[in-house]
Amino acid sequence: MCCELKRRFLLLYATQKGQAKAIAEEIWQQAGAHGLEADMHCISEMDKYNLETEKDPVVIVISTTGTGDPPDTARKFVKKIQDKTLPSDHFTHLQYGLLGLGDSEYMFFCNGGRTVDRRLQELGAQHFYDTGLADDCVGLELVVDPWIDGLWLALKEALQLQKEKEGMNSAVDAVSSSLSPAPHAVHELKLSSEVQNLKLEDEGIRGSDILSQKLDDINLVAPARGTEPSLVHSVPPVSQSALNIPALPPEYIEVEFQDTQGQNPHLSSLISEGTTFEVPVTKAVQLTREDAIKTALLLQLDIADTAFEYQPGDAFCVICPNNVSEVEELLHILGLSDKGDDFICVKVKQGTKKKGASRPQHIPERSTLKFILTWCLEIRAIPKKAFLRALVECTSDAGEKRRLQELCSRQGASDYTHFIRDSNVCLLDLLHAFPSCKPSLSLLIEHLPKLQARSYSVSSSNLYHPGRLCFVFNVVEFPASPSRPVSRKGVCTGWLAELVAPLLYPSKSSLDTKGESSSSEKIFIFPRPNNAFHLPADPSVPFIMVGPGTGISPFIGFLQHRQKLREQHTDWKFGETWLFFGCRHQDRDYLFKQLQYFLENGTLTHLKVCFSRDSSTAEVAPPKYVQDILRLCAKEVARVLLKERGYFYVCGDKKHMADDVNDAIVDILSMEMEADKLEAMKFLAMLREAKRYLEDVWS
């Protein structure tokens, strides 16, 4: 008997933070068990595949970044397929299935995947499998898992149809023999990111790549009667279920400790996005009072001796380290406290079963152990299920082992979401909760993602402050919870706050350069220009700015820039400017009371403020939120947008502000246009398309 021939399909992924790559690797791992072979590549490796001549089915996994952009690794690919000279039949030979990843907290949900999907369709490509759109807001696995489950039948049917078209019926038997009886038709799987449309089966095995555990094969540790489920305890039905758990990811990294000494890599070598700049922090101001709920800081950087350029509205990234005490704690748990300063060599494990295995790009080939844990790995990352599956093998206690299996299983999906994902549990939390779990250093390098640089909006103008760059941020606080017994500060904001503590003083002189000091503290930054969130090119066009809390940050730069333009070009006509600002308390967190200065010199035409937590003795309660003030100014807002073709900018929290502002604008447009809400929504969509309604938001 001859061996069964594995049928090939092309598997492409485009990732920003590693999610899409991890999912593509899972597909690659499962393919073999279905008699298929995945030829996997990053979509940026265009020298390793050619869609123009590709005959086999193509599977694409693609994430979304920024405000609906494809990930950086897909930019060249997207630019190539968006070439307007390509004919409409350019990809008529191509059959593909696409899985998009996104977050419905943001306006342009899964826009990276949608952009590629739409363009491939325009160029004649055909779906062999329906597009899946996975939502990180509710849990990617709710769509990813069933999408992968249905992929295999769709692939086999696509390959079978392809063989029949080629007239090679004799070779079809090997593939069709593994198919369960099914109608001979193109497979369809309707997927939605909406949880209520998903019906996941808890029973039954989904494929030979999934390990099904029978109750008599494991030692069940029954929780105490009447207890609630938690990170470490389960209750029925999960605690009594046979589990469908993922296949064990193959090991592929090897770590060697070396006796030699040397230098760690330069931080700039860790960044692939562009040129990095090392700049001193020259000023730090606390903008909030000590009793404010959040602590907001303004930092000023000296960029005079660099080639760093920016426009008001741009963002930039700060390269930050992990918390020193957390790194030390992790070294202690790993039993490597005395080896933190030792140099290690990271290389691919010989004989690994992982296809195309290579040392992760964010891991230097040679550096100290502490350097990798401090600057390279996101040790605060929420562990993926594949990581939990690998941790099972490092756990000796039967009860702990079972609970980790539950958390990475289909049956434990709800527990994973509640106790790990929504609770922001990280590796350290897991190692404390499951003390018999002793992972190797190589396992951490395999599964922990790259430590991402953090992005911040510029809060200054290079015209107003030449050679200076300012930015504003809240020091992020993560309170303790049942799954995470210790409170933590944000990785970057906590580090910056500690770094500038010697410079820090509570002051409101933040719009000028008084109080600068010569600081020896320096940070690494690199630009991340915003293609749209800029002042109107025509200064006579009016615009409205909505920025509560630290959302006001880019608008300080807007106003500084506008003031200088007014001073330099007295003959120009300038449109009116509106700013809607809100905070909790007028005397605690009104970040920039100098806004009155812009109002007095005419740079700012209208300033509207509100304070959500201040009590009032007025007969009519004042507005609490920016969307409330917008409604009070409905006629003026509508005039700027409808009659004067003005711009509308929103910056700040997406979930608790930007969506409400969006709804308020729809109501205003509906009322002033004397149209129904659907028409108002269409008009707002047109404003977005014309880049006249612009958002810089975060969740």
TrEMBL record:
Catalytic activity: 2 cob(II)alamin + A + 2 H2O + 2 H(+) = 2 aquacob(III)alamin + AH2
Gene Ontology CC terms: cytosol
Keyword Phosphoprotein annotated: yes
Pfam families in alphabetical order: FAD_binding_1 (PF00667), Flavodoxin_1 (PF00258), NAD_binding_1 (PF00175)
Gene Ontology biological-process entries: cobalamin metabolic process; folic acid metabolic process; homocysteine metabolic process; methionine biosynthetic process
EC number: 1.16.1.8
Residue stretches making up the FAD-binding FR-type domain: 274-536
Subcellular location: Cytoplasm
Domain Flavodoxin-like: from-to ranges: 9-152
The UniProt record lists the keyword S-adenosyl-L-methionine: yes
GO molecular function, one term: FMN binding
Enzyme class: oxidoreductase
SUBUNIT field: Forms a multiprotein complex with MMACHC, MMADHC and MTR.
Protein name per the record: Methionine synthase reductase
